[in-house]
Amino acid sequence: MTTTIRHHVSDRLLMAYAAGTLPEAFSLVLATHLSLCDECRARLGEYEALGGQVLERSDLAMAEGSLEACLARIEGLAPVARPQPRRAHGVFPAPLAKYVGGGPEKVKWRPLGMGVRQAILPTARGATARLLYIPAGQAVPDHGHRGTELTLVLQGAFADSTDRFGRGDLEIADEDLEHTPIAEAGEDCICLAATDAPLRFNALIPRLLQPVFRI
Ligand code: ZN
Ligand code: ZN
Fold first, then answer.
1. H/E element holding 160?
2. Structural domain tally of the chain?
3. Which of 18, 107, 141, 172 is a Cys-bridge partner for 47, taking CB atoms 3.0 to 4.6 Å apart?
4. How many helices (H) and strands (E) would you count in the chain?
5. Cα of 129 to ligand 2 centre, how many Å?
6. Can you give the pTM of this predicted structure?
């Protein structure tokens, strides 16, 4: 299957990912995009090389002491485990498959109404990661964002007022965007999404259900 990814990780996010400063849920979405995207993997390599150079030149690495002591100090600085991008197989690329323990059939989906289903993935606090299953042709209720929302398409496609997003595409939404994502006809859409603040729903029912669904 050939896919053309048109929506990529921003420089700011990629740098934060390389530095290991992102919440786990965001790192998971980026690792999953990176495992599908040669272009962003190459960009990440450049940032990591740059980071290595900075470290080499810093007083830290020049400090007196054994190599071991030096490595131990670097290790102490090392970011918390971030999911590593690896090559993709099937609908769920490796970093995601590891969280789920397999593919979509392993997911414990919970209904959100209108045929839309979600599964919240266990990640550290600070941001929430969820899988969304949107039947072909179905819309997600119109909403705004209080923080950042990353949405990565894994199967099918969706469109909103900004563009169309297919497999591998990453939508980065913030406070300025209000949207109603609609799954494309033909194939049910599966997305991996991460948010660091609750969404802002415009309709009453989704708003009432928000605490229940942790959206
Ligand atoms: Zn990319
Ligand atoms: Zn959104």
1. none
2. 1
3. 18
4. 7, 11
5. 13
6. 0.83
Ligand nearest to the CA of 178: 2
CA of 153 to the centre of ligand 1 (A): 12
Tens digits of residue pLDDT in 70-91: 455 555 554 455 666 666 668 9
Question: Relative to the alpha carbon of 32, which ligand is closest?
Answer: 1
At position 144, the amino acid (one-letter code) is: G
Give pLDDT tens digits for 8-26: 999 999 999 998 899 999 9
Domain range enclosing 184:
1-215
The tokens 């029912």 sit on which residue? 205
Domain CATH number, residue 40:
2.60.120.10
**Over the stretch 158-169, which tens digit does the pLDDT of each residue have?**
999 999 999 999
Q: How far apart are CA 138 and CA 86, in angstroms?
A: 31
**Rounded distance between C-alpha atoms, residue 78 and residue 64, angstroms:** 20
